[in-house]
Design brief:
Helices cover 14% and strands 14% of the residues. The chain is of the alpha+beta class and 59 residues long. The strands form two sheets. A two-stranded antiparallel sheet has the order 1-2. Strands 3-4 form a two-stranded antiparallel ribbon.
Length: 59
């Protein structure tokens, strides 16, 4: 197992961690109600997926 020989400085650690960024979730419009939703997920507004009613709407 690889073990570092020396302690990494705060500057080096923070520089490395600065590249860890959260990405914005991709949203698509629901074909039935035109609200934004995650792709490949049932619409939380109208409850449809692939033009079928799969869940009861959370309204």
């Amino acid at each position: 197992m690889a073990v570092p020989k020396r302690k990494m400085s705060r500057s080096n650690t923070r520089t490395r961690r600065s590249q860890w960024k959260a990405s914005r979730p991709v949203l698509v419009t629901c074909p039935r109600c035109r609200d934004p939703k995650l792709p490949h997920v049932a619409c939380p507004t109208c409850g449809t997926y692939n033009n079928r009613q799969v869940i009861t709407p959370a309204s």
